Structures are given as C-alpha cells and as structure tokens.
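User: Some background: our group keeps a shared notebook of sequences we're curious about, and every so often someone picks one and asks for a predicted structure to add to the entry. Today it's my turn. The entry only has the sequence so far, pasted here. Could you supply the structure so I can complete it?
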Amino acid sequence: MFKKLWNRRITASKMTISQHMPWPLKFALIAAGLGVAAAIAVGTYEMGRNFAFGPKYSPQQMTELQDKVTQLTAEREQLLATAATIESQQNIEKSVQKQLTDQINSLTNENNKIKEDLAFFESLMPSANRPQGISIQRAKIEMSGANQLRYRALVMQGGKASHEFSGEMHISLTLVQAGKPVMMEFPDSKLGDSGKLKLTFKHYQKQEGSINLPEGASVKSAQITILEKGELRAKQLLSL
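Assistant: Of course. Here's the predicted structure to add to the notebook entry:
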C-alpha cells in the first residue's frame, strides 16, 4: 500500500514539473530572429532593385556611358546633316533638270517656228515651177480645246502678180454628232459681210483663227475654198 502511494506521488510530481526560459535568453533569440528577417528583407529588396533597375554602376562606368551617349548623339546629328545636304542637292539637281528641260522644249519650239518661217519665205521666192493663179499653202487644222478647232492657211498668188486679188475664204467641215454626219460651214452665212474671211493681197495673205464646234461633235475632215466674186479659185482638202 505504501509503495502504491509513493508511485502516485512520483507520477504527480513529474506531471507538474515545467521548465522556465530566462528572459535574457528569450530576448537574444527574438533579436536574432529579427536580424535574420531583416537580412532576408534587405536581400530581397536589393535583388528586386537590381532586377528592376539594373545593377549599380561605378562613377567611372557612368562617365563612360555618358561619353558613349554623347558620341552617338554627335554621330546622329552628323548623319542628319548629311541627309539634309543630300536632299538639298537632289532638289537643286531636279530644279536644274527642269530648267534645262524647259529650255530644250522652248528651243525646239523656236526651231520649229524658224523652219516654218524659212519655208514660208522660200515659198515667196520667184519660181518658174510655181503655178499661175491662186493657191493655198501650209494649210492646217487641229483641235485647240474642248469643242474648238484652230485653223490657218497661206493664200498666195503665183506668177507675175499684175493685179491685187480680192476675195474670201470658206471652210466646210464634216462632223460627226450623235453618231450622224453633219456638215458645217464657216463662217456662217447668216453673219453677212461682217463675218466673212476676206482676202485682199497682191502676193500672199495669212488667215488663221478658231471655230467653235457644236457640243459633242468631232471633226472628220475640212475643205478650204478660195472664192473671187463667187467663183472658185482654189481649194484644198484637210483631215484632222
């Protein structure tokens, strides 16, 4: 019986024993834990900072990078200036080329005019082969705009011109309008004497002008006739 009581006492004593850690030791452990946590936090911050903003550079490296930026900026400015110079030269060349083209066209037109004038004056020179009477020289018709025709002709008196010629010129046009052939006389007889193409010359006379065509009409051919007191003296058929 005594033995059982002794054993219960020992068991109860074991169950009530508790160990208490000293406060200095607890404080040291807490401080160590905070230090480790702080170290981890700082390390994590530096890793994130390096990842986001890149690694830290020394003053020498920063200077080298700044010099490189300055060099590249200078090269960029130089390339832009070179490109601007090339563009300016191209614009100048285009302008010069246009001026030369315009001069060539002007000289070509002037040369053609000189040839026409030369042919004209050659036609005025006396010639044994030139037929007697009235003739039509260098006649031409061409479209000069919408519904407008341009004509010109040189009327000459061959041989020895003993008297002055007095007459008139008529132009008969063959047109196509709305798919149908149409004849048109110029000048219109309704205009009377004021609209006639009168000719009065001893050696030659030039006639030129414009004819307004009906809307939508196209010219197929034209015939120029020279009349003296109602009688036919010359005629020439032209095609456009």
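Suggested note for the entry: The mean pLDDT is 77. The two ends are 154 Å apart (CA to CA).
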